[in-house]
Design brief:
Blueprint (H helix, E strand, L loop, with lengths): L11 E7 L3 H16 L2 E3 L8 E6 L4 H13 L1 H6 L4 E6 L7 H8 L5 E3 L7 H10 L4 E3 L20 E5 L1 E2 L10 H5 L3 E2 L2 H13 L4 E5 L16 H9 L6 E5 L8 H9 L6 E3 L7 H6 L6 H14 L4 E8 L6 H14 L3 E6 L17 H24 L5 E9 L6 E5 L5 E5 L8 E9 L4 E5 L2
Parallel strand pairs: 1-2, 1-3, 3-4, 4-5, 5-6, 7-10, 10-11, 12-13, 13-14, 17-19
Antiparallel strand pairs: 8-9, 15-16, 15-18, 16-17, 18-19
Helix pairs in contact: 8-9, 12-13
Bound molecules: iron/sulfur cluster (SF4).
The site of iron/sulfur cluster has 10 residues, from helix 6.
Length: 449
């Protein structure tokens, strides 16, 4: 019997749902790349998917609970479509006992794998199709960096380029070193060839990604510093903008500040996670800098890079945080005047030293401090956004605005989101936009001809 394709879509479909940080996003882009090269196409609908992957995050309890809920919710779908393959991967799976628990509780999960062996997904998929058993493989330790995995990216304008994997810092609240392994740097030639390849495909902006980008290269055979890497990427012809995240304050030295100042493609925005404004708490967090060290770096950055936008991460309610510690954080926020901040309420994570600390802060105290912090952060953001009023700024157009089809969306060099009326042909272009209205979290504007 011959089947005419006609308008019937016979291709196999995949759906990847991702929780967590850019590292997980990047892993999902690689999983999508592998699936594409196996002939799969993406779908947004669970009931149309032949393969569903949940890429999980272990950093916060909330994200974990969502994963459990989502796996449970797929049981009925799997009953209706037993051929559908459900895979669960990511940081949660690197935690002791977690894969076994997932497989025991959720018999409809077909594949479980971890962060160090995602490159083996095609093999697991093949086995899941042919073997009548749940497939589970977790590597305890990180492997050599695997290059050349195909990547399907969300945007056609900007891309994340990983420069380091893992982390050696062991902040006492964080599971990353346990679930992502020790720090490894990619070779500069591999990074540069990825960036050149992106430019040849029309990409205009890259974000160099690592848990601590400043320590890039120290473990390479031929040592290259992060500032040297920035200068190399700056030489790539056709590339317009370079961002990076995140530097660790303890390792951000003058050479990096000078590279940001000197390299015209490196934008005037630095994300510098502070976590707390109290030296006593920073010590308990094992951050290896003091409040004074941090403020000194901020001063140097502001002197060297006029108009720089600073953003940060702050944790509220870390074990032992007193009202005085919290006030130190609040004062620091007011002093630095961040453009924006990712603010988090401390969440206990199994196996971390902070989880074993006795002085856990009561939930109501955490929430009350959190609200005061958010108010202070937002006040700064709004003030800074208002200072853009009537200015003409360079925008890299990233796509259509999310809320209005006739508007485009892009970002300033300082990372501000700007919406303005315009034609889609401008996507991927640098344009001049006059800011007409400042909102709390974005700006409105009009094209300058
Ligand atoms: S630097 Fe600290 S917070 Fe960042 S990933 Fe490493 S251990 Fe976690």
């Amino acid at each position: 019997m011959k089947i005419e394709k006609g308008n019937i879509d016979l291709s196999k479909k995949y759906l990847i749902e991702t929780w967590g940080c850019q590292m997980n996003e990047e892993d999902s882009e690689k999983l999508a790349g592998m699936l594409r090269s196996m002939g799969y196409e993406s779908t947004m609908f669970r009931n149309k998917a032949d393969v569903i992957i949940f890429n999980t995050c272990a950093v916060r309890e909330n994200a974990e609970l969502k994963v459990y809920g989502n796996i449970g919710a797929l049981k009925a779908l799997k009953r209706e479509n037993p051929d559908m393959i459900l895979a669960v991967c990511g940081c949660m799976m690197q935690q002791k006992g977690m894969p076994e628990e997932i497989l025991r509780k959720y018999k409809h999960v077909d594949i479980v794998f971890g962060t160090h062996n995602a490159h083996k997904f095609p093999e697991y998929l093949e086995r899941a199709r042919t073997e009548n058993a749940q497939i589970c493989e977790i590597y305890e330790k990180e492997t050599e960096i695997v290059e050349g995995i195909p990547i399907v990216r969300d945007s056609s304008v900007k891309a994340f380029v990983t420069i380091t994997y893992g982390c050696d810092n062991f902040c006492t609240f964080c599971v990353v070193p346990y679930v992502r392994g020790r720090e490894r740097s990619r070779k500069p030639q591999d990074i540069l060839s990825e960036v050149r390849d992106l430019v040849s495909k029309g990409y205009k902006e890259v974000t160099l990604l690592g848990q601590n980008v400043n320590s890039y290269g120290y473990n390479l055979q031929e040592k290259v510093t992060f500032s040297e890497l920035l200068r190399m990427v700056n030489e790539v012809e056709g590339l317009e903008r370079i961002r990076f995240m995140s530097p660790h304050p303890k390792d951000l030295k003058e050479d990096v500040i000078e590279a940001v100042r000197d390299c015209e493609k490196v934008v005037e925005q630095i994300h510098l996670p502070v976590q707390s404004g109290s030296t006593a708490l920073l010590k308990r967090m094992n951050r290896n800098y003091t409040r004074e060290n941090y403020l000194d770096i901020v001063k140097k950055i502001k002197e060297a890079i006029p108009g720089v936008a600073l953003t940060t991460d702050i944790i509220i309610g870390f074990p032992g945080e007193t009202e005085e510690d919290f006030m130190e954080t609040l004062k620091l926020v007011e002093e630095v005047k961040y453009d924006s901040a990712y603010t988090f309420i401390y969440s206990r994570r199994k196996y971390t030293p902070a989880d074993r600390m006795k002085e856990q802060v009561p939930e109501d105290v955490k929430h009350e401090r959190f609200n005061r912090l958010v108010e202070a952060v937002n006040k700064n953001s709004i003030e800074i956004n208002k200072s853009y009023q009537d200015q003409v700024v360079e925008i890299l157009v990233e796509g259509k605005s999310k809320n209005n089809d006739e508007y485009l969306q892009g970002r300033t060099r300082t990372g501000k989101t700007v919406n303005f009326p315009g034609d889609e042909v401008l996507v991927g272009k640098l344009v001049q936009v006059k800011i007409t209205k400042a909102r709390s979290f974005s700006l409105m504007g009009e094209l300058v001809q």
